[in-house]
Write a structure and sequence with these properties.
With 122 residues, the chain is mainly alpha-helical. It has 4 helices and no strands. Helix 1 packs antiparallel against helix 2, helix 1 crosses helix 3 and helix 3 packs across helix 4.
Length: 122
């Protein structure tokens, strides 16, 4: 059981590294930030970390594109979409391992919603 928990933490840490790498690529290229993230991108990074910390799927977390639960507020979701649209293709060149892991995890089917009970018909 402890191995599973450790694996889940590792997976969520990698997910956080991936989104932060994407935000950094986007911010550097779009906002011309050289020394770090601008205020807007820094706030988005903090928000993404908060959302990952409170993910109801924990170790079974799918990629956000396949997730049945949209935990981001609509404005933040649009920001993240713009970041991923821009930075996603560039990740293969700049952070290839993170990009490959993200693509592989994106192929997995999302788990059932953990809080919904499925009742049999009849």
């Amino acid at each position: 059981m402890q191995v599973q928990a450790q694996s889940a933490r590792k997976r969520l840490r990698r997910e956080l590294k991936t989104i932060n790498a994407m935000i950094a690529i986007f911010c550097r290229d779009q906002h011309a930030s050289l020394g770090g993230l601008c205020a807007e991108c820094s706030a988005l990074s903090g928000y993404a970390e908060q959302r990952l910390d409170h993910c109801i799927f924990a170790e079974d977390k799918p990629t956000c594109a396949k997730c049945p639960v949209h935990c981001y507020k609509p404005a933040a979701r649009e920001q993240v979409r713009a970041v991923m649209r821009y930075a996603g293709p560039r990740m293969l060149y700049r952070r290839p391992l993170l990009a490959i892991f993200h693509m592989l995890e994106g192929r997995k089917e999302p788990p059932a919603h953990p809080r919904r009970k499925i009742t049999p018909l009849g």
